[in-house]
Amino acid sequence: MAVSRRDLLKGLGGVAALLLAGAVGIGRFPLSLAGGQTSHKKADRQWGMVVDLRRCDGCKECTGACQVTHYLTNDQEWIKVYEVETENGGTVFMPRPCMHCEEAPCLKVCPVRATYKSDEGVILIDQDLCIGCRICMAACPYDARYFNWWDPPKPPEPFDNPMPEFPVPQQRGTVGKCVLCVHYTAEGRLPACVEACRMDAIYIADLTTGVMTNRSGETYQLRQYLQENDAFRYKEELNTSPRVWYVTGHGQSLDRKNQG
């Protein structure tokens, strides 16, 4: 039985894996949803993401929506869509946001603690502290961080007040990345990439309540959905415990009416 979308959004204010493994280093989905520790207290919500690759058509609407929301230049693709050729000659499109890892390498190497994990498990950057050393970029195995070489586009008022949760505008000489649109989820809204996905391939997930939902309101039990659809996490062998899961499936029906 599908979970009510309200169960996920209420309270927010407070194609197969083996075919891809050789090309992008995919790991399998474990029974535990989260690994590792955080030095912060746990909030009511613990955010993650699910991407159904069976649906993604490579349109990059998610990339564009993220760029518009955060006033990014075209070279700043906080959610980048890769075209991956499978072993049988087919093509799969793979959106890659920041993985918001439980054991985030970027967090461990930052010499000034500009990178940190929020109470909700989202990896953020305090650009007022960032010294632009780019060690975090070298440490990230997902190439999910970008250096601001130039002055960013200037947003209209009142957005000229950057903060880690909504780093707009970006600051030249610092590193930026996906923040999972926590400025939206704090208001009960979906992240920009989720809202923009015309194929309903991207879901926001709450690991605390164990539910996930997409733009169209398809809402499911997270654990059951991942297990029944053969989910995996990208480069899981690195033991970073990403909070982003991918689904390629093994021939399961895309009819969501019988899932939940």
Main features:
single chain, 260 residues, alpha+beta, Alpha-Beta Plaits, 7-stranded mixed β-sheet, disordered C terminus
Give a brief rundown of this model:
The chain is an alpha+beta fold and 260 residues long. It has helices spanning 5-9, 17-24, 61-70, 105-109, 135-139, 182-185, 192-196, 222-228, and strands spanning 26-28, 47-52, 80-85, 91-96, 115-117, 123-125, 145-147, 175-177, 202-206, 211-213, 219-221, 231-234, 244-247. It contains eight helices and 13 strands.
Chart the SSEs and their pairings:
Elements: H1 5-9, H2 17-24, E1 26-28, E2 47-52, H3 61-70, E3 80-85, E4 91-96, H4 105-109, E5 115-117, E6 123-125, H5 135-139, E7 145-147, E8 175-177, H6 182-185, H7 192-196, E9 202-206, E10 211-213, E11 219-221, H8 222-228, E12 231-234, E13 244-247
Report on the architecture of this protein.
- There is one protein chain.
- The protein is α+β, with helices and mostly antiparallel strands.
- It has one domain: Alpha-Beta Plaits.
- About 20% of the residues lie in helices and about 20% in strands.
- The strands form four sheets. A seven-stranded mixed beta sheet has the order 1-12-13-2-9-10-11. A two-stranded antiparallel sheet has the order 3-4. Strands 5-6 form a two-stranded antiparallel sheet.
- The protein starts with a helix and ends in a 13-residue tail after the last strand.
